[in-house]
Amino acid sequence: MLAARVLSRHFARVTIVERDRLPEGPAARPGVPQANHVHGLLARGRAALEHLFPGLGDELVAAGATVMDAGAEIAWLTSSGWGVRFRSGLEMLSFTRDLLDWTLRRRLAASARIGFLEQCDVTGLVAGADGRGVAGVRLRFRNWVVDGRPREADLSTDLVVDASGRHSRAPQWLEALGYDAPDETIVNSHLGYASRLYRVPATFAADWKGLVIQAAPPRGTRAGLLIPVEGGRWMVTLGGRNRDYAPTDEAGFQAFARSLRDPALADAIGTAEPLTPIHGFRATENRRRHYERMKRWPERLIVIGDGACAFNPVYAQGMTTAALEALALDECLEEQRRRHPVGDLTGMARKFQRRLARIAGTPWALATSEDYRYPGTVGGRPGLKTRILHRYMDAVLRLATRSVKVRRRFLEVQQMLRQPPALFRPGILLRVLGDLLGERLRPVRPARDSRPRKVTGPLTKPA
Question: What ranges make up the beta strands (E) of 5-80?
């Protein structure tokens, strides 16, 4: 949908081919199985979405989304302890994926340039007459049957954008046209999680809005997240790595919550009313298809989002990275328009795939580096550089339990507002080296007790 918004700025007609029958409101659908779980829209992702859809944040808040200050209103248990709590100004929105999809889809449907083909599958690519690229896609209509078989047809296009996600069949489609399949890199920590929605108890009040209990690798594999979503509800996700999958039965789910490193999450949901079944999800591997390395690439074809590079969802980088890729697509098309005759897309697709690879490089490195902390991870082993980075980041997290400055910088990187090298600048580096050497170069006192607790006041004023 983000790509469609960008394309509508450059083309007279944009068609979104959708395999599902789209719901008439914020509701789950088969094509988005991960919508049943916690989603995180980082601060940079929110800014990118606001650029593409002005006023989107206000619209989501009006529909019930919650604004949370990442430093003050999210109680976060890292592997080194509770992150210090402070008013950071780094605001996140929490909502269900269903609400976000519905809000974006309504915006797109209001455009005269954008249309939807529902209950329709793309089964392949149509080669261009010039033999140098793609001229369209093959369609199979699920809701149009002729002589007992689904109707098939070709759709001619100027540009094809594959945004079909982790299960993209672009490698097979390329091979069918005589191209090589891309090289793939897969790093899998075997994370499996389970989620359900709860009604927030009317009597519940605490000094936090959201709660994160991280795993503590290598031995501690279990984690839990609780965020408020529209309708006075909590979305709760429990996860475990090394195939220590969160269960989807009632007793197992409750026991898993009780087994976390702190009882805060289990205590919160202990008196809450469950509203949904427990949904499981295990397609969580980091998967990168290196389209940017291919010797030959067809003109007029782009692969974007998880179809090109998918991250372990636990790091909440997916939606933000997708938004940044959409902005990069806008830039590539604008550059093409300035440098070439109208309608000439020669070279643009390859240029975009290379730019996408650069955008995905940082979140990929962060996700895979963290996954290498777990002994059961498949897809390589941490080298010396990664092991040194792990020790450094352990020191950062220790300092972030008592230093507002370090915690702020960590959150800025985590929210993708700064690049990771920001954690190695002198003001942070000296503190980390002091911690690693067992001395305090610049000792700081805790800003306040950061452990989450129930309070008698309103939920909206964190202590």
Answer: 14-17, 66-69, 74-78
- Rounded Cα–Cα distance for residues 342 and 351 (Å): 18
Name the token pair of 426: 């002198």
From the number of C-beta atoms within 10 Å of its C-beta (0-12, 13-18, 19+), residue 161 rates as buried
CA neighbours closer than 13 Å in the CB half-sphere of residue 309: 26
pTM for this one? 0.92
List all residues 6 or more positions away from 57 whose beta carbon is below 8 Å from its beta carbon. Answer: 46, 49, 50, 65, 93
What per-residue confidence (pLDDT) applies to 145?
83
* Alpha-carbon gap, residue 262 to 243, rounded angstroms: 21
Using an 8 Å Cβ cutoff, are 307 and 372 in contact? no
The per-residue pLDDT for range 227-266, each reduced to its tens digit, is: 999 999 999 999 999 999 999 999 999 999 999 999 999 9
Single-letter residue type at 454: K
pLDDT at 428 over 60: yes
Helix (H) or strand (E) holding 427: helix 426-436
Angstrom distance (rounded) from CA 69 to CA 77: 16
3-state secondary structure of 125: strand
**Beta-sheet pairing, 184-187 with 286-289:** antiparallel
Contacts of 83 (CB under 8 A, 6+ apart): 76, 77, 397, 400, 401, 407, 410, 450
CA distance 448 to 109: 48
Model confidence pLDDT, tens digit, residues 278-326: 999 999 999 999 999 999 999 999 999 999 999 999 999 999 999 999 9
> Residue 17: is its pLDDT beyond 50?
yes
